Amino acid sequence: MKREYSLAHLTVLGCAPPEMIYIASLTGYDYVSIRPIYMGLPGEPNYDLANNKEMYKLTKTALKETGIKVNDIELARIFDGMDVKKYEPAFEVAAELGAKGMISSVWTPNREYATEKFIELCDLAKQYNLDVNLEFVTWADLSTLKEAKEFLKTVNRENVGIMIDTLHFNRSRVNLEELDNIPKEWFNFAHICDGPAEIPTNKEGLIHTGRDERLYVGEGAIDIASIINRMPEDVVLSIELPHIQRVKDFGYTEHARRCIETAKKYFGEHPRA
Question: Which UniProt keywords apply (predicted)?
């Protein structure tokens, strides 16, 4: 089975969705993973398609002209004081653009509250035929595969999934065998990138690599093949690989091309058993 690849938002952070789609088409991707939910982070562009009609129109045109599809949107965070309904315009856009699902993560230590809001999120997403894929992030309040599995079992909704990011998987020190105990239907797509052998011991160090300096697949020390090959064959591989210096050196298009070329080379050398 031919692996399918998606170009993730953080890999080409400075590119609006239309430009991102054309870059994905030029460099050999099948999908894009966009961020129409504005998070207000320092230096983050606002790609809120629901409130930017011209950008939305250009995004639809780019999808039609290239044949690229939208795999997922991000990021429907769970945090204290949130209003799940505020995500609905982005869900509507996602459905109109043909997205399969979204990414969510938990940023509150109050597990009962997080469960309540996640259930509300899943029920709202279901109205738009979207799956809600929970990502455990090394520096978030839900940071391990075990926690994610227990959380989703409590949530008990049909449209849930677990989204594995190979960097967070490695840095949370998850055992490979834990993947064998996850329901196969929970695996819809995965984020892939590589990273150095040394795992930072503080939050700042974890964030720096995660947002600014991930490595091309096969360039670092993460056993990516052993992680991905434990998932179903049809899992989409979304390359989330921000690297500020390389973007400065090569530009976004060349960086995106190197991302997918190194990934294809790596998986060609590490086929499924």
Answer: Isomerase
Which bin fits 52, alpha (ψ -120 to 50), beta or left (φ > 0)? beta
Strand partners, 213: 243
8 Å CB contact between 195 and 214: yes
- Distance CA(177)–CA(123), nearest Å, equals 31
| Euclidean distance between CA atoms 67 and 84, whole angstroms | 32
Pairing of strands 160-165, 31-34: unpaired
Q: Where residue 272 falls among pLDDT bands split at 50, 70, 90? A: confident
The answer to whether the beta carbons of residues 190 and 3 sit under 8 Å apart is: no
Query: What is the DSSP track for 183-229?
Result: -GGG-SEEEE-B--SSPPSSHHHHHHHHHHB-B-TTTSS--HHHHHT
How far CA 110 is from CA of 142, 231, 270, in Å, comes to: 10, 30, 41
> Structural domains in the chain?
5-264 (3.20.20.150)
pLDDT in tens, 167-186: 999 989 999 999 999 999 99
C-alpha span between 56 and 181 (Å, rounded): 40
